[in-house]
Amino acid sequence: MDGLRTTEVGAPEALLLLATGPGDLPARMDAAVVVPLREVPGVPEPWHGVTLRAGNLGETRVWLIEDDPTLENSAAPDWSRAFPVWLAGAAGAQLMIHTSAGTALQGDGSPPMAAGDVVRLVDHLNLSGRSPLRGLGESRVGPLFPDQTRVHDRRLAEVVSTAAAALSVQLRTGVAACTSGPALCTPAELAWHRTAGCDVSVQRLGDPLIAAAHAGMGSLALVAVTDVAGEHDLDVATIVARAQETAPVLDQLVETVAKGLGPLARERAAEVEA
Fold first, then answer.
1. Whose CA is closest to 203, among 243, 169, 172?
2. Among 243, 173, 242, 238, which residue's Cα sits nearest to residue 18?
3. Among 155, 176, 7, 146, CA closest to 95
4. Burial, 129: exposed, middle or buried (Cβ in 10 Å; 0-12, 13-18, 19+)?
5. Which among 25, 119, 132, 272 is placed 20 to 30 Å from 17, CA to CA?
6. How many angstroms separate the CA atoms of 44 and 78, rounded?
7. What is the pTM of this model?
8. Domains with residue ranges and CATH for the chain
9. What is the per-residue pLDDT across 149-195, written as a single tens digit (0 to 9) for each?
10. What is the pLDDT of residues 82-133, one digit of tens each?
């Protein structure tokens, strides 16, 4: 954080960590400041190709960072995978919106999902076999065994539900199986995820959610469904194309939610100080 004090990024109230890409959101930010993370001392090497955009969306001061999927191929330590969450948390962010793409896991008793659906996570299973807290001997940001019962913030859920209704977006809810990549899941893995009680399977989501819990940040995780378990001959190009089709709806939803988060962030900050 010390390396950012000489810039004009300002303290964020909310972090937008977008694995689906920034879309048109940077153009909609007021008083925007752009800082390549490679220019900030202390930022781990895997994030050197990523840009921090700071500005206002409505009445909320936000930081926007793309959650780089190439980190799956990095040999960097586990803690570095969640670095932007801790950077924003140390700077004052109280809330995080994370977007990602995922596979719908169909099962009995629930309406079927389809590519293009947007899912608000109500909970998750970290099946990646790792944690960004691993290897930390101590932490000034938060406890090494953080409470994860309130990761998916109830008040953020209410805000996004209201926004989705206003935008006529059908918002699904579900539990995510958080896996590592960078390979697509096997049919047996997807079937097991469903048996474990999950509704979508998402890669690289466990790290930021754990880090947010550790930093005391409330999270809103939105998943754009790009494929459905059981599809054959699926490739990454198809998944990317479907994600791009859903991007405008997801961008609009994130923007609408973010614009009204300032009061909630300040309320959370006051609760912490109390």
1. 243
2. 243
3. 155
4. exposed
5. 272
6. 11
7. 0.92
8. 2-273 (3.40.50.1580)
9. 888 999 999 999 999 999 999 999 999 999 987 778 889 999 999 99
10. 899 999 999 999 999 999 999 999 766 567 899 999 999 999 999 988 888 8
